[in-house]
Design a protein that fits this description.
- This protein is of the alpha+beta class.
- It folds into two domains: 28-172 and 207-245, no CATH class; 261-410.
- It has 16 helices and nine strands.
- The strands form two sheets. It has a seven-stranded antiparallel sheet with strand order 6-4-3-2-1-5-9. A two-stranded antiparallel ribbon has the order 7-8.
- Helix 4 (117-130) packs antiparallel against helix 5 and helix 11 packs parallel to helix 15 (388-401).
- The longest helix is centred in the last third of the chain and has 32 residues, at 286-317.
- The chain is elongated, with a radius of gyration of 29 Å.
């Protein structure tokens, strides 16, 4: 009798869960499981798109969206709270509002999956468990555990592990850094600064499985994927692909990112030529030349020093592994802020005791030397990093401000005099 009572209670509990989900008396065979891939939006946390799981029954007008990209932060500034590690991510379930995504001018692609009833039950149980208050929060990682990787793992459940078995052994076509730049290439400052902050981990070779940290890469991988069910029958995973909306005004997502360093090198060379001109102006018009040359040093030091402070903060105070192990810290760090007061002293022609001009040249010589060192150690696999844009932007200016160009001209003129 006790066993029968326990069975009734268990049945009622399970029925209550499914009844709250809108699934009472609706066989799982009638449910459609879909993956929704949404394109980028304006906010920085949606620059790389979004993915969600849709479970629906069109006959009953039932539709639910399981979303692992919901987050909360204590202040009104996402970036500030992100830097402080105060953003919390969770899974939620809601209805799908397609019009909201269309109004945001985002790509919307729906992939309908061909899964058997057993796997549907496994996926549904997993999703339902993930929206419970005690299970909904998770430790988010931008590349290893996010809204897209959760959907990828769910699809893998539906194939009995065959998705991972196939793609975990398939080399990816790009590194994580290159994938990120496919979405940021048209934002010059953000593209450069994000690349500057990202360390060596993002340049390691990845598999197709790991590339699916991006929603669009999930769509690319699963479209033609085939798997075998429990009976040994081969199925095409994606039954249909439906494009619900195509962006009208957003820049395209590139297949491969463009090279950035040639443009940065050109900009830095132009800035270096200006600095050379200011150095020469000091001889013809000492006052204005000294002021402008000191200002150039202060501005360069302030820009590089602020970037270096952000890098050091992330290096030591943030638990983001993809920022750490970053060789950019060798030539762009808070020490560059010393150029600000030194440049002001040089412009004012004061504080002769600290010899501002001499110390400025020593500071920039150190920056240039550290940049050369990074070029040398990059050939070693443990230190490889795609940091050409940062080097391209820093090296020419540091070379001129260090006075090394003048010393080279001096040595060249002495050699010519001796030969004459």
């Amino acid at each position: 009798m006790l066993r029968k009572c326990f069975g009734v209670v268990l049945f009622l509990c399970v029925s209550g869960v499914y009844g709250q989900s809108g699934l009472a008396s609706r066989p799982v065979d009638d449910l459609l499981f879909k993956v929704a891939v949404f394109g980028p939006s304006d906010e920085i946390f949606i620059w790389w798109g979004h993915a969600a799981l849709i479970v629906e029954n069109t006959k009953w007008g039932y539709s639910r969206v399981f979303d692992w990209g919901i987050f909360s932060y204590p202040s009104d500034n996402f970036l500030d709270d992100f830097l402080k590690n105060q953003v919390r991510y969770r899974c939620s379930v809601e209805t799908l509002d397609i019009n909201m995504y269309i109004e945001e001018d985002r790509d919307i692609v729906i992939y309908t999956l061909d899964l058997d009833a057993e796997k549907k039950e496994v996926i549904l149980a997993y999703a339902e468990n993930n929206v419970l208050p005690e299970h909904c929060y998770y430790d988010y990682h931008e590349f290893r555990d996010n809204c897209a990787t959760r959907i990828r793992d769910i699809i893998d459940m539906g194939t009995g592990g065959q998705l991972k078995e196939t793609f975990a052994a398939t080399p990816g076509r790009l590194s994580r850094r290159q994938h990120i730049r496919r979405f940021t290439w048209f934002r010059p400052f953000s593209d450069w600064f994000l690349g500057f902050l990202m360390g060596q981990d993002l340049d390691e070779p990845v598999t197709v499985w790991e590339e699916m940290f991006l929603p669009v890469e999930i769509g690319r991988a699963i479209t033609d994927f085939r798997y075998r069910d429990s009976a040994g029958m081969e199925h095409k995973l994606v039954r249909s692909v439906e494009l619900l909306n195509s962006t009208k005004n957003r820049p395209p997502i590139l297949n491969t990112p463009p090279r950035r360093w040639p443009g940065d090198l050109t900009l830095s060379i132009l800035a270096a030529i200006v600095c050379l001109g200011l150095d020469a102006l000091r001889k013809r018009r000492p006052l204005i030349g000294r002021i402008l040359w000191g200002a150039a040093n202060s501005i360069a030091g302030l820009s590089g020093g602020i970037a270096g402070c952000v890098l050091v903060y992330g290096f030591f105070f943030m638990n983001y592994d993809y920022i750490q192990q970053n060789i950019n810290i060798l030539f762009m760090n808070p020490l560059l802020l010393a150029a600000v007061p030194l440049g002001i002293c040089a412009a004012a022609n004061k504080a002769a005791r600290i010899r501002p001009e001499r110390n400025l040249r020593l500071l920039w010589t150190g920056v240039f030397t550290a940049g050369l060192l990074t070029l040398l150690i990059k050939v070693l696999p443990p230190f490889f990093q795609q940091n050409q844009p940062a080097l391209a932007l820093v090296m020419p200016v540091a070379f001129v401000l260090s006075g090394l160009s003048g010393r080279l001209r001096f040595f060249k003129s002495n050699k010519t005099s001796r030969s004459v």
